[in-house]
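Page 42, continued from yesterday. The earlier attempt failed because a stray header line got pasted into the input along with the sequence. Redoing it now with the clean sequence only.
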Amino acid sequence: MPRRRRNRRQRLERQEQRQEAEAAGVPVSEEAAPSSEGTTGGGISFSGASGGLLGAGMFFALAMELLIDPGDVSRLAAIAWAFIGLCFLPAIWVSVVRNHPQRRRVLRITTVGVMVLAMLSLFLGLGFSLAVLLAPSTALLAVGAGFIFQRSGSSS
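This time it went through. Structure tokens are written below.
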């Protein structure tokens, strides 16, 4: 069952229980009712933040390496690596901000973008090295986005 329907059903059941308790004369404490904040998972997404930091740190490190010792590669390539590193910053931001309404959407877009980048690296002749380097950050972003290790809908 979708989360929205499940939360709505639970909210309606709690409301009915409160009305029955009030009709019976039993005092109802609002503190005993479970908060909706805990059920929506609205805290800090540590896996999303660590995946974003890992990806951004890796690309910024590659950019700094090209700036310091370019070898036979142009230093302008550092701009491309830094730009790719900047693409991870929205994922870091929404993971750290509590109860961000677009968290899953931004993390999913970032995860798909990283996967596309890994596939493009295979076709552009960069080999498996970039794809292997992107694997840990992609996995962490996928966990934060809910692509893998989601809660099953049948648990209610």
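Notes: The chain has a mean pLDDT of 80.
Reminder to self: strip header lines before submitting.
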